[in-house]
Design goal:
The chain is of the alpha+beta class and about 290 residues long. It contains nine helices and eleven strands. It comes from Azospirillum brasilense.
Amino acid sequence: MNLTYLLTAEAIDPEQTIVLRHRPKEPALAKVLPWLAEERPDLFEVFQSAQGQQLEKAMSKARYIASFVAHGPGRALFVGMYELTGSTSIPMQTFWDWPGNAELRAFGMQGPSEDDPRTEILMFQQQHLDSYAHWKGKLIIDWPPPERSWWRRAHQNEMPVHAILEDSALERGMPHWTELVLSWDELNVLPRRWRETLSQWRGIYFIRDRSDGKAYVGSAAGADNLFGRWKNYAETGHGGNKLLRKRDPQNFVFSVLQRTSPDMTIEEIVQLEAGWKVRLGTHALDGLNDN
């Protein structure tokens, strides 16, 4: 069984279908793109709506997109089927004003290169289709070489089905808590299973401002524990902390210093927090804790 067979079975013409295997060269964007496909499909579609000059021409003549993300060497993981319903031409200099592009820029998206000869760029409108929606994050196909060619015409390439997983691989397993490092922008697009896990963890967390290295130590033991506390930072940028209000939250990096027992009292957790503040020197003027 191959991709052409699957398309034909759903009355989707392979000759009118472009297959995309997204693998951004920007590391931060490559990390979160599967999360966006799962948690922010609207933003994923914005990412997919503008392409380089050659692919733009191909998409202008196509009707469908079979969308995948890279899933290891020579593999592609299914995101969804889309019908191209039109496009809007915008001046290149207004690219970052297009809704959603500024958000993607925060994840490292570089946008059109400086040597792009176009003065205008097409933003494609897409309609998500129900075809194989139940295989989102589960269908894996083999990607024909050369791997650097990240888009193909469906009818001209053999793309065998490699596997159909039981669970979505778009939500990659969360790293061990000692290795968990998240940017402020990433807090809003965390995979569901990550949010559920963080909601179970009480502990002491650390916020570092990349602009000058100053840091803040806090504790989480309230509603939804670490996730609840970090969600508040995601929404406000400062979590109610006076010294953080004066800073750009896009420079913040979040990590966990210590997990605590779920039956530890609030008073005990606050004592642990105070000890970490002293050891790490995060009290003002050296740090960002004001108490």
